[in-house]
Amino acid sequence: MIQKKEHLQIALVLIVVTIIRQGTGLVFPFPKRLSHSFTGRGYTTKYGAVNNSTIPGPREVAAKIGVRPALEAPSQVWKFAWKLHGVILPILHLGDKAKTRDSKYSLKVLWCKAIASLDRSSKAFDNFWTYDTLPSVSRWLILRLFPIWVFPRLHHANIEARTVYLNQIIQDEIDRLPENCSIRLVSLGSGYDIRCSRLLSVYPERMKAYELDLESVVESKQIILNRLQQRRPSAQRPTLIPLDLNNLTAVQDKLEEIIVSSRNGETDVHTIYISEGVMIYLKKTIPSGLLKLMADISRKANAESSTASFCFADRLEDVPGGDIELAKAELSSHGWDLMDWCPKPGLARHMGVARLRV
User: Fold this and answer.
1) Which residue ranges form the domains of the chain, and what is each CATH number?
2) Which of 110, 149, 203, 265 makes the best surface tag, with the fewest CB within 10 Å?
3) Is 241 helix (H, G, I), strand (E, B) or coil?
4) Which pTM does this prediction carry?
């Protein structure tokens, strides 16, 4: 059932579409049957058991994670909102000293996370950490001048769900470890997310964090972290490593350096690998290759007591939908045991946590 506030949000999106089309001549697709968005039954999605889909609907996923659901609007509305975000992104970063680039949509995702992170009623609220990574003027004009409810629960709501889920499963993995266990965070393609910095600031004595991403992203991330530390002097800084994840040989060398060579006599070390919305952009067979590589190197670090977790909100290879048995088989074939599974709508449709099989 679509609520009155959701009616208003869809109406606002469509009004903006009209203004932009008439004022600029830009062509954006309109939903063919707008009435579907405003009926008492709401807009029917393609997800859920009722539609013979192994991926649950947004309301079911939201209920499991503990967030408000994304708006069940026509796909054309979602596409327009994403295009509009791209149009205004350069405006938001006019004069931005960070010179951030939108590599693989990482900058769009950062703004979406910032919207969700300012909602005090959401589990995604992060006490303004993400907000502090954004340009001073535009962050205030967009995210503080307007109430959060003005932003339709489209892409930022979808990203909010995966952010909350990832935060929770990572924290759960940390909480189950002995207090004397050292932790390695290894984030694959972390983009501009500041999760590692936040966690390092909570566990500065027992944790080291490494982020692997493209050189262009790392360059911008360094400047973003500079800005964050200016606003939050106590914020810790992960080690940023420029790397193309499609190059498995280079990834292997770096992971061996991080996981094996840098132990410095530590006997009890747990590695937490994090993958959020990156495998969907990698070449065929690379995602599966990364799974095997992470398992093999984790075992190599200490054959008798190796422990590692893989926390993901991404797309597993050879798992087209949300079938848990296919997910178990894919992970098991590369050395991982699936512990929790929470598929959701969207490109990064597979969320879960797996542990190294010993």
Assistant:
1) 166-356 (3.40.50.150)
2) 265
3) strand
4) 0.88
